[in-house]
Specification:
This protein has ten helices and 14 strands. It is an alpha/beta fold. The strands form four sheets. Strands 3-2-1-4-5-6-11 form a seven-stranded parallel beta sheet, with helices on both faces.
């Protein structure tokens, strides 16, 4: 990892949402590398983070003070939800995430923040049958029916304004389908792989794993460890672009993913698909060529990542 030095010569990075799924992995990676890390909390400090990590309340005043001393701010704090939750309660995510991002951006504008890395999503891209580069067309904000996508698109518009009119170098990361140990497995917040793992473990008794949508749906998935590596690279490196896809870049059908999960979590079970459930775009795979020019290479392949995630979930259930 490269050097991160402020004017006093000490290393200092602020991570909002540092105790979350992606944030906790990044915080530990930076902490292990000797970087001074500050994380935020909304109600009380997280006991799961290392003692060496400072924790501050998520308020504009506290953020301004922390940002003034930081080399980089990484904004990961967010409410998340699966596709069904997004469709059932669209504005629950929209308003809560807008409030979080607006608080961070107010603190960025009021402070001397040098670099801001903000998490967006692959869902901002318009449907395509080819791998999506950062130059690919995004959804039309005036016509989209997804409040979640609208919120993330607005984030990108506003941070672009901050970048163009302030001293802060803003980098937007469009993150793909993240999975791995430490993720959410509950019905409302789980993503594709986590939801399938939960159902597969249940299928040990029924012998039947029911997946949603279509087995022909094509996606790319990225392990949470690789996301942390990518973010650390953007922190320590000198990126020349303002938008980076963060993903594995490997296309796979949901049918293949379901089969891998069934083989690992419930051997011998039959995989079927409920076509009445949401499926999303038929194809969404991110190109990661831009990130690879900085030296990024995913380390966790899908088979290994699924095995590790299944093991973590089973241990959690048995514990």
């Amino acid at each position: 990892m490269g050097s991160i030095s402020d004017s006093k010569g000490s290393q200092h990075v602020v991570v909002t949402g540092g105790s979350g799924f992606i944030g906790s992995g990044l915080v530990r990676r930076l902490d292990d590398a000797g970087v001074r890390v500050v994380s935020t909390y909304r109600t009380e400090p997280s006991p799961s983070l290392p003692d060496s990590v400072d924790q501050v309340p998520f308020t504009v005043g506290s953020l301004v003070r922390a940002f003034n001393k930081a080399h980089t701010v990484v904004h990961l704090a967010a409410r998340t939800g699966g596709i069904e939750f997004q469709q059932r309660q669209p504005f629950e995510l929209f308003f809560s995430n807008r409030a979080l991002t607006d608080t961070v951006l107010r603190a960025v504008v009021d402070s001397q923040t040098r670099k801001l890395i903000i998490a967006s999503t692959a869902a901002v891209y318009a449907p395509s049958s080819k791998p999506l580069s950062e130059r690919a067309r995004t959804v039309d904000l005036t016509t989209t029916t997804s409040a979640y996508v609208a919120g993330k698109s607005l984030d990108e518009i506003v941070v672009g304004l901050v970048r163009r009119t302030s001293h802060t170098n803003v980098i937007t990361t469009r993150i793909g389908n993240v999975y791995g140990e430490g993720g959410h497995f509950d019905a409302e917040r789980s993503s594709v792989i986590h939801a399938l793992i939960r159902r597969a473990v249940d299928a040990r008794e029924t012998g039947r794993l029911v997946a949603w949508g279509s087995p022909q749906t094509v996606r790319s998935f990225v392990h949470v460890d690789d996301v942390a590596d990518a973010l650390a690279l953007l922190i320590t490196g000198d990126p020349s672009e303002h938008i980076y896809n963060v993903d594995s870049g490997v296309a796979v059908t949901v049918g293949r993913v379901a089969t891998l999960i069934a083989e690992c979590a419930a051997p011998g079970s039959k995989v079927t698909f409920d076509h009445s459930r949401p499926r999303g775009d038929p194809y969404r795979v991110l190109s990661i060529g831009r990130l690879m020019t900085l030296g990024f290479k995913p380390k966790v392949d899908l088979e290994e990542g699924i095995a590790r995630t299944v093991k973590a979930f089973v241990n959690e259930q048995e514990g």
